[in-house]
Amino acid sequence: MLPSKFLGKNDNPAFLPTLIRSLWFWSAATVLFLVWIPSMALVRLTDRDPFLRRSGRFLRVLGRMFTRVYPGRIRLSGVENIDRAKAYVIVSNHQSLADGPLSAHIPLDQKSLLRVTLLDIPVVGWLLGMSGEIPIDRSNPRTAARGLQECARHLRAGCSVLIFPEGTRSKDGELLPYNDTPFRLAIKEGAPVLPVVLEGAGKALPKKSLLFTSGEDIHVRILPPIAVEGINPKESGALRDQVWNLVNGELQRLRG
Predict the structure, then answer these.
(1) Which residues constitute the domain of residue 90?
(2) Does 2 reside within a domain?
(3) Which terminus of the chain is more exposed, N or C, with fewer CB under 10 A?
(4) What's the start-to-end Cα distance of the chain, in Å?
(5) Is residue 226 within 8 Å of residue 243, measured between CB atoms?
(6) pTM here?
(7) How many angstroms separate the CA atoms of 104 and 109, rounded?
(8) pLDDT at 216
(9) What is the SS3 assignment for 200?
């Protein structure tokens, strides 16, 4: 049973279908987790790539399977904007716990820059650790710098890096201010920025809830990449604002 603190108010007439929808998803997710842990361990043990790309691909298969049991449709668009021979700094807005699995639809080898505390979560943390995702502790400048160095190392090896520049999930779906981190990284490494728009996940699975309150469509929209050649590192703020405006404009367009 879902913990009561995540259930919210239950006097809404839509509560029962919401509860049924959520129980179906989390039951299916539990089965997937139980199957995936030993399989993931085997893949990790046999992955000789120092960047664990095969392990990452296997984790993204799990992410896509999660989205298939979601009681709505996932609408992926903009794949034609990707050159699979390139490594990108992928920047996405952040609405929900579902954003990680949703990013698995982006057809690129990628590693996520994530809070180190996520690795402490049973099962989820084990899978993230085995796939070689990149942890960062923002409260510790030394380990934070080490995480960004790992991002740079992956980019140089041709593996894209996914960063949520808002730093946290939006409570109401509106786009929060972006931080400079991914844009400074992109300029320094000469890696194009790939903006991604996620819309609908925040409404479907709100922050601080485990209930799928909506079965509406979720959009994963890949926007055209932005080249960084010739951009001075001091202009990272302008690049940040450019990407923020593009993502926010697409969010508003998707909402009609």
Answers:
(1) 11-254
(2) no
(3) C
(4) 37
(5) yes
(6) 0.91
(7) 10
(8) 80
(9) coil
